[in-house]
Design brief:
By secondary structure, the chain is an all-beta fold. The chain is 0% helix and 60% strand. It contains no helices and 9 strands. The strands form 2 sheets. It has a 5-stranded antiparallel beta sheet, with no helix packed on it. β5 and β6 form a beta hairpin. It is globular and about 40 Å long.
Length: 134
Amino acid sequence: LIKVVYSRPSKKGREIFGVLEQFGKVWRVGANESTEIKFYKTVVIAGKKIKAGSYSLFAIPNKDNWTLIINKQTDKWGAFTYNQEKDLVRVDVPVKTLTSTVESLCITFTSQEKGANLIIAWDKTFVELPIEIK
């Protein structure tokens, strides 16, 4: 019901959040092209209905929380042409710490009663975004 297409950068001994991916700056949630999220049914994120279709997924990482963004723009390289006016929804989610290191960026889902949680994990950091499927 949901598909995410993204490129998986690797840690390669680098410090990721706060250094490679700077705090407070829009990130494409991956490498190369902007990450694409496709909903096959209407979903609800943070109380906002989003129609079935393809969108971009961006994030603004910070030390204690991230702002996750679903944006109407697709087929863009990186976050260089990111346009905030095309945001459909922005959600602040808390940063959680992992006990082991995730070498390559990983985006996955866990089931929940009304849909799924989108999980983004890299290095020792992960965040989750609840998505209700209608």
